[in-house]
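WARN no homologs supplied; continuing
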Amino acid sequence: MIVHLVDGTYELFRHFYGLRRFSKKDPPFGAVAGVLTTVVMMLEQGATHIAVATDHVIESFRNDLWPGYKTGAGIDRALWAQFHPLEDALMSMGVVTWPMVELEADDALASAAHLANRDKRVEKVSIWTPDKDLSQCVVGTRVVQVDRKSGQVRDAAGVEKKFGVAPQYIPDYLALVGDAADGYPGIPKCGAKTAARLITKHGPIEKFPAGVLDDANRENALLFKTLATLRTDAALFDDTDELRWRGPTSAFPAVAEAIGDARLAIRANKLAGK
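OK structure emitted
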C-alpha cells in the first residue's frame, strides 16, 4: 500500500489565495471545496490510504517556548472561517482527519509518517506539502515529500540536493537559517550555505566545537532546533489500514451542496461504488 498524508492547512491557504487571485472573490466555502476536490482527484488517481492533518488552532506548545512563534494573528477572516468547516467536510467525506490543537498539523504528518514507515506492508509514504520542516521526515526513497508548489517529489537525495544537508539535519539547518513562516529568526550571519557547511563539517548543533557559536547564539540555536524538530509520538492510529478510504458518509451530499460543489458527492459515491 501507498500512504498519502496531506497538509490540510497548506491546501486551504493554497486554494483560498488561488481563488482570490483568479476570481477576485471569496466564496464562503470556496477553499474548502478546493481542498476536497484535490482529495477526490487523488482518490480518482488510485490513492487508497489517505489522511489529512489540519491546524484546528494555530497556536501550539511551541508558542510557550518562543514568544515570536507564529499565531493566528493576521489570518484573513474569510480564510479563518473555513478552517473548521474543512475538517467537518473531510470527515463527512469519509477521509481520516486529524485536527491538531496542542501539536501542529506538521507534527501529525511527521507522526503518521513515522508510524506508517514502521509497517512492512507499506510500500511508500508520500507527504503532500512544500513545508521545509517536513523534509526531516524523508527516509531514503520510502518516505518522500511531494512539493505542491514545484511538483517535485523529494527523496533523501533530493532533500540533500536542495538544502545541502541530509534529512535528519533539517532541524539543525532551520535553527541556523531561521524560518520566517514559523516566526523564529535563526542565527545572525548564518545563511543557507554557511549552515550547510557547518553541519557537514561538525554534525548536529550539539556537536559544534566551542567557538563556532558564542554562548548566546548557541543557546538560541538549540532552542530554535527544538522549535524546528517535529514530534513523531502522536498516537494517531494503531493500524495503517485505518487510513483506507471506505467511501463518504450519508451526510456528504448535503455537505457538498452546502460548500458549493454538489458534484463532489457524485464523484465520491462513484469511487465508493467501485
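Residues 39 and 228 are 28 Å apart (CA to CA).
OK
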